[in-house]
């Protein structure tokens, strides 16, 4: 059974940084593309960033380009999201997800397994 466990969320001031981690188990992690999504209260879940199976290909939503970096370490089955220059509008629950192919789309329906989420709050 696939399990994804996010960590690293918390409260940070505007302009600060956080690093999210997503530990995966129960699957050959390195064969599949992964992604981060986020969901703010009252809003739909939205795409943040995606990465291909070996970590060479990445893609970001426009609002986080230049501030966030997605990466993965297949040796320890972990996905990361480095978030810098955080803004109040980045406040949301952040979810990691695993797709069914080596490179998956930007829609939630493109992903097969999800973590429980970690809260990120950006506020002074």
Order of helices and strands: EEEEEEEEEEE
Task: List unreliable stretches of 5+ residues.
Answer: none
Distance between the termini: 40 Å
- Which value, in Å, is the CA radius of gyration? 13 Å
Helix/strand-derived class? mainly beta
Number of helices: 0
Largest sheet: 7 strands, mixed
Q: Report the principal-axis shape.
A: globular
Number of strands: 11
What is the percent of helical residues? under 10%
Mean pLDDT: 96
In terms of DSSP E residues, the strand content is over 45%
Descriptive report:
With 124 residues, the chain is mostly beta strands. 0% of the residues lie in helices and 48% in strands. It has no helices and eleven strands. The strands form two sheets. Strands 2, 4, 5, 6, 9, 10 and 11 form a seven-stranded mixed β-sheet that branches. A four-stranded antiparallel β-sheet has the order 1-3-8-7, with no helix packed on it. The protein is globular, with a radius of gyration of 13 Å. The mean pLDDT is 96.
Question: Main attributes?
Answer:
124 residues, mainly beta, seven-stranded mixed sheet, four-stranded antiparallel sheet
Q: What is the topological layout?
A:
Elements: E1 3-7, E2 10-12, E3 18-25, E4 34-39, E5 46-51, E6 58-60, E7 68-73, E8 78-83, E9 92-99, E10 111-114, E11 118-122
Parallel strand pairs: 2-11
Antiparallel strand pairs: 1-3, 3-8, 4-5, 4-9, 5-6, 7-8, 9-10, 9-11
